[in-house]
Amino acid sequence: MASQEEVFKKIIAHCKEYGFVFPSSEIYDGLAAVYDYGQNGVELKNNIKKYWWDSMILLHENIVGIDAAIFMHPTIWKASGHVDAFNDPLIDNKDSKKRYRADVLIEEQLAKYDDKIAKEVEKAAKKFGESFDAELYKTTNPRVLEHTAKRNALHERFAKAMNGNDLNELKEIIIDEGIVCPISGTKNWTDVRQFNLMFSTEMGSTSDSSMKIYLRPETAQGIFVNYLNVQKTGRMKIPFGIAQIGKAFRNEIVARQFIFRMREFEQMEMQFFVKPGDEMQWFDHWKAFRLKWHKALGLGDQKYRFHDHEKLAHYANAATDIEFEMPFGFKEVEGIHSRTNFDLSQHAKFSGKKIEYFDPETNQSYTPYVIETSIGVDRMFLSIICSSYCEETLDNGESRVVLKLPQVLAPIKACIMPLVKKDGLPEKAREIMNSLKFDFKCAYDEKDSIGKRYRRQDAIGTPFCITIDHQTLEDNCVTVRYRDTMQQERVSIDTLHHMISDAVNMKNLFKKIVS
Length: 515
Ligand code: GAP
What we know:
Blueprint: H1 4-17, E1 21-23, E2 35-37, H2 39-57, E3 63-65, H3 75-79, H4 82-85, E4 87-92, E5 99-101, H5 102-128, H6 134-140, H7 142-163, H8 167-176, E6 193-196, E7 200-203, E8 211-214, H9 220-224, H10 227-233, E9 240-249, E10 264-274, H11 279-295, E11 304-308, E12 318-326, E13 329-338, H12 342-351, E14 357-359, E15 364-366, E16 369-376, H13 377-388, E17 389-393, E18 399-403, E19 414-418, H14 425-436, E20 442-444, H15 450-460, E21 464-468, H16 470-475, E22 477-482, E23 488-492, H17 496-504, H18 507-514
Parallel strand pairs: 3-9, 19-20, 19-21
Antiparallel strand pairs: 1-2, 4-5, 4-6, 7-8, 9-10, 10-16, 11-12, 12-13, 13-16, 14-15, 17-18, 21-22, 22-23
Helix pairs in contact: 2-13, 5-7, 5-8, 7-8
């Protein structure tokens, strides 16, 4: 059986071959950690964004959207803390000249201990069979206890160093653990330094008048600086939310794992403004809501878990991640943060404007607290592609690659195929396509055998293939072939619209979320 690493490589190749994701600037040998979405990728991405946007805007009468500019006044990033604190600790290996995130090197070391423990337990489970008690083994076996003690000691030391921003200690940990550079294999490390992740550029035409501005590293600040505009013009009453989808940029040091960690990516963020003191109740509310949103897609409930943050960002008093099981382990897809009144207070301080909410019921003014839900479109895309990718061996010995995408997100909903390119069948097929195309993204394919055409659609996740044959001209019926089961059914042309609509309507997902 292929390893998860091999499967992941196949998924990346599949994304390129079938027009989902291309490396950026490929004819110039690419640009590290930047990707372009192709003809199918952009459809899937737009469908993900629509699912998120409508779940915020349609399902909540107290949430509205905005679209703020990427360029913003540079003082915003001073106020938000990003100029001073949006850093990663980095370390260089002097022999390979490769740069690493010190925290990632240590996290990988922790994962190695976890692996060792898991392997010991797995070995014992095989040896002792059904009567094996894994929990008892973990608390009594001397080798497992030794690994666990080392792991916990490292974890404690690491958390303390990160919380205290102790760069010397991070280097000491790397030395003490004997962590080597994967390229050179040596322990010849530089000191650990802080590296700011924001990209900057100049705005203005002359050198005197130009100012340094930043490409936003999160979309959230565009919401905070528009809080007053939206609250006043929308006559919004607390609690209320502002949602936004847009590009964000980070000069990631370790940019790996395909579109998981990119330098240019897209976020879907919602800031929910609440009364001070109510924030934990809303934090729990949004955790539950967002998990339901994910699970409604049907990718498998067991693939999600919460991961509470130990080291809180400079603005948060509680934070959790929704992690998804990717081929390279459970990884963060979304963050839910209780950001206190930090951002609004800071913008009030730095801009000199009063940024508050007047509560008409109590006749009091206050600076609202904020619960944020922040999800990366690209990571969501990756989680969906990874869990939908299947290689199947068929009864006749042939194999097929099929993307079992949630039907509602599929780039193309139906492919219309005349059996042959003559006898009036293409004309009939075009007629059907023309009646469906106003509501569904459809494809038309008359080339090659029907089998080959099915495979092409399977590979991009099209839920329905509709074949028009000679009989169609007589009985007004077509053969519908279903992607996942490969079963075929003869149906009347008049029922096609209804059948597709039923299967790909987002309403089905929304009902699951609000039920
Ligand atoms: N406004 C809060 C914020 O930006 P974050 O945890 O840094 O929080 C939120 O980012 C989400 O944005 C992450 O859960 C992830 O899905 C996505 N994201 C962050 N950095 C990314 C990167 N370099 N590439 C792709 N997605 C990224």
